[in-house]
Specification:
The complex is a heterodimer of chains A (171) and B (328).
Chain A: H1 10-28, E1 52-54, H2 69-73, E2 79-84, H3 96-99, E3 118-125, H4 134-138, E4 144-146, E5 161-162, H5 164-169
Antiparallel strand pairs in A: 1-4, 2-3, 3-5
Chain B: H1 2-37, H2 53-62, H3 74-91, E1 98-103, E2 106-110, H4 118-126, H5 129-139, H6 143-174, H7 179-185, H8 191-194, H9 196-209, H10 234-259, H11 270-289, H12 297-325
Antiparallel strand pairs in B: 1-2
Helix pairs in contact in B: 1-2, 1-10, 2-10, 3-4, 3-5, 3-10, 5-6, 6-9, 6-12, 9-10, 9-12, 10-11
Classes of the chains: A alpha+beta (171), B mainly alpha (328).
Chain lengths: 171, 328
C-alpha cells in the first residue's frame, strides 16, 4: 500500500469538496427511507418465523400427540411437555380420524378419548426460544408451527413461559 | 422625541423576539435538514412534522435539574452562557433589515441603530462571544471543558484575522463603514460579484468563528466529550445553544448585508427580501455542516494561517490594484 502522503493541489481539494456538496444535495432530495414504526409497518417476509405456536384441528382439538420430539430437538431446551389423556367429553363431535379409531372401545364408559396421547401441559419459554424452527420441522403431526408475532414483551420472566392456551391463541 | 422612543422600542422588541424565535426554530431546521441529508425524517411526533419540537425542547430544558460541578467557579460558570448569548443578540442592532419606511410623516430606518462604524461594531461584538466559551471551559473545573475552551480560543484568534481581512475589500469598494451605506452602495450590483473570494473566506472563517462543524474543535464529541459545555445542563446549556444559533442568524445577516445586497431586491417588500436571503445563507451553513467531517487540529491551523490569511491579503492587494486601474 502506498503510505506516502498524497500531494493535493488546491484545485484537486476544492473539486473534492464540491463533490461532497453534490452528494449531500442529491440525498437531500431523495425520499427518506424511514418507516414510522408503530404507525406504518414493513410487510414481513413469507418465510419469516417468530415464536412457535400450537395448531388445532378444525373442531378445536389439539393436534399435538405428546411425542416429545420437539422437546428433544429443541437446542435451547425451551419446550417442556407433560403427557396425559385429554378428556373431550361426550358432547364432542368426532372427527373422521377419531371415528375410525377403535382402540378406545374397551375404555370405561363415561370417559371419552380419541385414543391418542395428548399433552396435559405444554410450555414454551419464549425467553429461551431462539426461533430456530426445529420444532416445526420435526413435528410429525404439524401440531407446532412458527408464528409471525415479533412484538412480544413481558413484565417478568414467568410471563414469558407460555402455556397451552396462550400458545394456541398466539399468532 | 416620544415617537422615536416608541419606534426604537418596537424595533428592539421585534428584533429581539425575531432572533430568539429564529434561534429556536433553527434547531428544528437543522435537525430536519440533517435528517434529509442522511435520508431520515427528523422530528415527526411533536406537532405537524415536529413543528412544536423546539417548544417541547425548551420546556424540557427549563425543568431540568441545574447541576453545578464540584470545584467549579460558580459565578463564572453561571456567567459564561450569558456572555455567549448577549453579544450574539446585540450584534443584530446595527444590521439594516429593510428599506426605510414612512410612518406618520417620519422616515424610520429599519435598523435598531445606524452606527457609522457598523462593521467595527459587529467585529468587536462577535469576537466577544469567545469569552463565554473560554470562561465556561475554565470555570467548569473539568479537563474536557478546559481543553475545549483552549482549543476554541486558539481557533478564534486564528480565524478572526482572516475574517476581518476578508471584509476589508468590501470596505474599500463601499468607502464607508456604515452598514446602511454599504447596502445602498449595492443598489446596482451585489458585492459578491466584486468580491467572490472575500465571500468564500468570510463563509469559512465565520463557520469557524461560530464553532460549527467542520470547525467544531472546541466541542469535538468523540474526542473531548462535549468540549466547553460538557458540564452544563438545564437552562445554561440551552443558553449556549441559543447563542450558537443566534450567532448563525446574525452571521447570515452580516453576509447578506455585506455581500448579497442587504434588503435590496425587486417586486417583494424589502424585509421579505432580507429574510429570504438570510434563510438561504443559513441553508448554506447547514449544508456545509452536514457535508464535511471535522478537521484535525493541525489541519485547522494550517487552513487558517497558511491558506485563508494569505488569500485574504492577496484579495486586498488585487482589489486595490483593480480600483486604482479603474480610477475609482
Amino acid at each position: 500500500m502506498n503510505t506516502e502522503k498524497q500531494e493535493n493541489s488546491i484545485i484537486e481539494i476544492s473539486k473534492n469538496l464540491l463533490v461532497g456538496l453534490k452528494t449531500t444535495i442529491k440525498t437531500f432530495f431523495r425520499k427518506p427511507v424511514t418507516f414510522q414504526y408503530p404507525k406504518e409497518r414493513l410487510a414481513i417476509a413469507e418465510r419469516f418465523r417468530a415464536f412457535p405456536h400450537l395448531n388445532v384441528n378444525g373442531d378445536g382439538s389439539l393436534r399435538c400427540v405428546a411425542c416429545f420430539l420437539c422437546q428433544t430437538v429443541c437446542p435451547s431446551e425451551a419446550i417442556k411437555i407433560k403427557s396425559g389423556y385429554v378428556d373431550y367429553g361426550f358432547e364432542h363431535e368426532l372427527t373422521e380420524r377419531q371415528k375410525h379409531n377403535h382402540s378406545l372401545d374397551k375404555l370405561k364408559a363415561g370417559t371419552f378419548n380419541d385414543g391418542r396421547r395428548h399433552p396435559s401441559s405444554f410450555e414454551i419459554d419464549l425467553l429461551r426460544c431462539i426461533c430456530c424452527g426445529y420444532c416445526e420441522e420435526i413435528c410429525p403431526e404439524e401440531a407446532i408451527s412458527m408464528g409471525s408475532d415479533y412484538e412480544v414483551a413481558f413484565y417478568n420472566r414467568d410471563e414469558a413461559i407460555y402455556g397451552m392456551e396462550k400458545l394456541i391463541k398466539s399468532r | 422625541m416620544m415617537f422615536w422612543l416608541i419606534a426604537d422600542i418596537i424595533k428592539i422588541v421585534i428584533v429581539f423576539a425575531g432572533l430568539l424565535g429564529a434561534a429556536a426554530y433553527l434547531t428544528l431546521l437543522e435537525r430536519k435538514i440533517a435528517a434529509r441529508i442522511q435520508n431520515r425524517m427528523g422530528p415527526m411526533e411533536a406537532g405537524f412534522h415536529g413543528l412544536l419540537q423546539p417548544i417541547a425542547d425548551g420546556i424540557k430544558l427549563f425543568f431540568k435539574e441545574d447541576i453545578i460541578p464540584e470545584g467549579a467557579n460558580k459565578f463564572l460558570f453561571l456567567l459564561a452562557p450569558v456572555i455567549v448569548v448577549i453579544p450574539a443578540l446585540t450584534t443584530f442592532a446595527v444590521i439594516p433589515f429593510g428599506a426605510p419606511v414612512k410612518i406618520m410623516g417620519h422616515i424610520v430606518p429599519l435598523q435598531v441603530a445606524d452606527v457609522n462604524i457598523g462593521i467595527l461594531f459587529i467585529l468587536a461584538l462577535t469576537s466577544l462571544g469567545v469569552y463565554g466559551v473560554v470562561l465556561g471551559g475554565w470555570a467548569s473545573n473539568s479537563k474536557y471543558s478546559l481543553l475545549g475552551g483552549i482549543r476554541t480560543a486558539a481557533q478564534m484568534i486564528s480565524y478572526e484575522v482572516a475574517l476581518v481581512l476578508s471584509i476589508v475589500g468590501i470596505i474599500m469598494i463601499a468607502g464607508d463603514l456604515s452598514l446602511a451605506k454599504i447596502v445602498s452602495e449595492q443598489s446596482h450590483m451585489w458585492f459578491i460579484v466584486y468580491q467572490p473570494i472575500g465571500f468564500i473566506i468570510y463563509l469559512i472563517a465565520s463557520t469557524a468563528e461560530m464553532n460549527r462543524v467542520p470547525f467544531d474543535l472546541g466541542e469535538a464529541e468523540g474526542e473531548i466529550v462535549a468540549g466547553f459545555h460538557t458540564e452544563y445542563s438545564s437552562m445554561e446549556f440551552a443558553f449556549y445553544f441559543i447563542g450558537e444559533y443566534a450567532q448563525m442568524v446574525v452571521n447570515s445577516a452580516i453576509i447578506v448585508t455585506l455581500f448579497l445586497g442587504g434588503w435590496q431586491g425587486p417586486f417583494l417588500p424589502s424585509v421579505l427580501w432580507f429574510l429570504i436571503k438570510v434563510f438561504f445563507v443559513i441553508l448554506i451553513y447547514l449544508w456545509l455542516r452536514w457535508t464535511y467531517p471535522r478537521l484535525r487540529y493541525d489541519e485547522l491551523m494550517d487552513l487558517g494561517w497558511k491558506f485563508l490569511l494569505p488569500l485574504a491579503l492577496a484579495n486586498i492587494i488585487v482589489t486595490g490594484f483593480i480600483m486604482i486601474l479603474l480610477n475609482r
